[in-house]
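thread: overnight batch results

M.L. [08:02]
morning all. the overnight job finished for the chain we discussed friday. pasting input first so we're all looking at the same thing
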Amino acid sequence: MSMRSWRSEWAFQRELIYGASHRRVRNTIGTYSIFDNWLWRIPSVVQLVSSLTQLTLIWFVSESPRWIVSRDRHEEVFEILVKYHTEDDRDSAFIRAESEEIQRIVSRGIEALKGRCIELVQTPCMRKGQLSRPMRDCSASGAGLGWRRKFI
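M.L. [08:03]
and the structure it wrote out:
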């Protein structure tokens, strides 16, 4: 193993092991010297502020075109796509293609949801898969391998 690949592997492992704890420490900078209830309250308040900001600003974000299509409001989707993609060019081929693609994807999703749950366990292979997934997840998290899902 070359020195360069060894260093990159070492850096990757170091980030996996220590990275999460370093991020947590950065969140609590300045509170480690406080010896009352504010030791844990300050980081909680910092996290609460970001959550409240998201909850406040979510009402000003436009709805997803796919969600609007799923509610059968196709003209509204076309207007949103014209507004954000082509700067009021209603005759754009790109907008027509994008609108048709969104409608096609949503209709496929709706058709897939109409399937029966029994299809998940009809064949032996599907039954084994349904049984093995929860067991694999529990054993991996119990063994400290929860990070695998992020990278693999």
